[in-house]
Design brief:
Layout (H helix, E strand, L loop, with lengths): L9 H8 L10 E4 L5 E6 L5 E6 L8 E2 L1 E2 L5 E6 L9 E8 L2 E5 L15 E2 L11 H11 L10 E5 L15 H15 L3 E4 L3 E2 L12 E5 L6 H13 L3 E6 L29 E2 L4 E2 L6 H16 L5 E4 L2 H5 L21 H17 L4 E4 L20 E3 L1 H11 L11 H4 L10 E5 L19 H17 L3 E5 L24 H19 L13 E5 L7 E6 L8 E6 L3 E10 L4 E7 L15 E3 L1 E2 L7 E7 L3 E8 L36 E2 L8
Helix pairs in contact: 1-5, 3-4, 5-7, 10-11
Length: 676
């Protein structure tokens, strides 16, 4: 739905009620049909407000009039005095204070470090993404998104790639390179770290001052529309990082906007995030609700965003978040839940899913709030939630020397005890490759080759585990260096064979994920996942099955988290017949050892007349092996399996949940890493 400029008494009434969800079409600056321009700003504590700019030498400016009791100010400037691109601010007087503030509803800004708002260019953008929008409506609405493959490539648009002189790519240049790359690599969506205008590069965009303006660093608002349009034309969804939890204390921003506490909470127990040095939005205040929900609406309506990833949800939900005992006060029920924040998220999601049922809302929620992705029973109503537990357990396990992994095997299995309580995204995000945490590759222990093998098997764990997927840029090329917001992905690393092979591996397993509904069609319940053996801690091996809507889509996944070659590994299978290896992370083209031939293996009965069957196959060190049952031709005559001598390696399991005993001929890989 296209939003038009609001006039009349209803718009301010709804704004003060907290239900004007397109307040950007009323507040801020707007051209009128007679060629004049109207400015409106909310500043209830101000004694006077005026518009200033180079049209008045940034002096006293053009006085505004208070038009509502609760603090909206307005002025209409006659035709000819202003033009698109002209910078302006509001001059606010409160007692003896004189403040120069950027427009909270500005739709364009100066290039940082300049801080003024700009009169926007109202040239309409002609969208070309009708086909994408129809596809989105068909696949995402009515909960259909969770039966779709979703594989997200997270990136920082200012540091994905730079010109040779270190300058930024423009939005158009970025799209021209990014769209074909993301498509070729097998991702369905990109997620952009915050593109809203922010003064400090080192905040990575998370300290926003302009909630309605894309950063001027890469071009104009219409350039950003063209960027999203080009992604859509390539069949790639665009998710935007959105930050309602806090804002910085820059003098020109929302901080004590009209000389007093306004957008932030009044009480010292809620006012600030001391760890971040930022102010917290008072989401219980109606005008702040209108402001934030309008911002979310704006990026969906005006820029065709396919989803919003909502940052730091936990910091809003819990009154004691990052606060010492005695520095916070419980709610009326005596607990630490922020009731206003809960109501805000319910209101936000109810509006967005009602107005845009084919748009995703994704919570970064690191706490234990129940029902983040539920719309009933006090739930928050998000589409999906980042699975921070899976991420923390997986990375902690990955960093262990394989000798000790058997003592921490539950870090690989615990996530399945709660995986279906919410609708999850499994993230390996920007937060995990900075501040001394090391890159995804460099977290892996062992030799040079083992680090690459380790990353391959852990990425396979992410791609085969229930839930949608997200990985941060540079992981796919095996970058050793941590992410640097002021630099670029080290693309030159692909000149080295192992890094080029890692990039090829990511593309191959991403393509395998997209092509196999068993890996995404039933992510929300046990009918899509079944353990074969969750308890093989001694060998640090996981085996499980994934199922789609069609039983023929079933896959058997084996993950070996040690550098030990299981030359004759036995595993139970659900039915007899032929089982074909369809994917192996140890292929030489991926930088592996090539110890896993892409062969078909015959299931053998565990005992005479037994209904339980098993197969034996080589399981390379630090590897993922995926098999599929080969359908038996309807008219084919089935022969009894050839009798073989059963060694301790291939002896069948006695129970469905246990694998056969360890192969007697297992040997360490030629990487010479000792395995206890």
């Amino acid at each position: 739905m296209k939003t038009t400029h609001q006039e009349g008494e209803l718009a301010p009434y709804l704004f003060h009620q907290g239900t004007n969800f397109t307040a950007y079409s009323y507040l801020g600056v707007h051209p009128l049909s007679d060629g004049s321009t109207v400015f409106r700003v909310w500043a209830p504590n101000a004694d006077s407000v005026s518009v200033v700019g180079d049209f008045c030498d940034w002096n006293v400016g053009i006085p505004m009039s208070r038009i509502t009791e609760r603090g909206i100010w307005e002025v209409t400037v006659t035709s000819g005095r202003l033009h698109a691109g002209q910078p302006y601010k509001y001059r606010i007087q409160n007692g003896g204070k004189i403040l120069l503030k950027a427009d909270p509803y500005a739709r364009a800004t100066e290039l940082p470090p300049a801080t003024a708002s700009k009169i926007p260019d109202e040239t309409p953008y002609v969208w070309r993404d009708d086909g994408w929008m129809a596809y989105r409506a068909r696949t995402i609405s009515d909960g259909g998104y969770y039966k779709q493959p979703i594989n997200i490539y997270e990136l920082h648009p200012l540091s994905w790639k730079l010109h040779e002189d270190g300058s930024y790519l423009t939005w158009i240049e970025l799209a021209e390179e990014l769209a074909p790359y993301v498509k070729r690599m097998g991702y369905t969506h990109i997620e952009l770290m915050p593109v809203m205008e922010h003064p400090y590069d080192g905040s990575w965009g998370y300290q926003v001052c302009s909630y309605f303006a894309p950063t001027a660093r890469l071009g104009s608002p219409n350039d950003f529309r063209a960027f999203i349009d080009m992604m859509h034309e390539a069949g790639i969804g665009v998710i935007l990082d959105w930050v309602p939890a806090h804002f910085p204390k820059d003098a020109h921003g929302l901080y004590e906007f009209d000389g007093q506490l306004l957008y932030e909470y009044q009480g010292e127990d809620r006012m600030e995030h001391s760890g971040w040095g930022t102010r917290c939005f008072d989401v219980g205040r109606q005008e702040v609700q209108s402001f934030l929900i309008s911002s979310a609406t704006y990026w969906i309506e005006e820029f065709h965003a396919d989803g919003l990833r909502v940052d730091a949800v936990a910091s809003m939900l819990y009154l004691d978040y990052d606060r010492e005992p005695g520095k916070w006060h419980p709610n009326v029920y005596g607990n630490n839940r922020n009731l206003e924040a809960i109501a805000f998220f319910q209101k936000l999601n109810a509006h967005l899913h009602g107005a845009y049922p084919d748009v995703l809302t994704i919570a970064e929620e690191s706490g234990d709030f129940g029902g983040v992705t539920s719309s009933t029973g006090g739930g928050l109503g998000f589409s999906m939630k980042w699975n921070m537990g899976w991420m923390n357990d997986t990375l902690a396990y990955a960093e262990l020397d394989p000798i000790y992994r058997k003592y921490h095997h539950n870090k690989t299995t615990f996530s399945l005890t709660y995986s279906f309580h919410e609708k999850y995204v499994l993230p390996i995000s920007h937060d995990e490759v900075v501040h001394g945490k090391k890159s995804f590759l460099d977290r892996m222990p062992g030799t040079y080759e083992q680090k690459f093998a380790g990353q391959r098997v852990f990425y396979a764990w992410q791609m085969t585990h229930p839930g949608k997927k997200l990985t941060f840029m540079s992981s796919e090329i095996g970058q050793f260096r941590e992410w640097d917001y002021a630099g670029s992905v080290e693309w030159f690393m692909t000149d080295y064979p192992m890094h080029a092979a890692m990039q090829q591996y990511f593309a191959a397993i991403n393509a395998f994920y997209l092509q196999n509904p068993a890996l995404w069609q039933r992510d929300d319940g046990w009918d899509g996942f079944a353990w074969v053996d969750a308890d093989d801690a001694e060998r640090s091996i996981l085996s499980f099955r994934r199922n789609g809507d069609n039983g023929a889509d079933e896959l058997l996944i084996l993950l070996n988290f040690t550098p030990v070659f299981r030359e004759n590994f036995g595993v139970n299978v659900p039915h007899p017949g032929e089982w074909e290896i369809v994917f192996c992370s140890d292929e030489q083209r991926f930088g592996g050892l090539g110890l896993c031939p892409m062969e078909t293996h015959t299931a053998l009965p565990a005992a005479p007349d037994s209904e339980q069957h098993y197969i034996t196959l080589p399981l390379p060190p630090l590897s993922a092996v995926i098999l599929r049952s080969v359908p038996t031709p309807k008219k084919a005559t089935r022969r009894a399996p050839r009798k073989t001598s059963k060694t301790a390696d291939s002896a069948p399991a006695k129970a469905q949940t246990k694998s056969p005993p360890e192969a007697a001929t297992s040997r360490s890989s030629n990487r010479k890493t000792k395995q206890s």
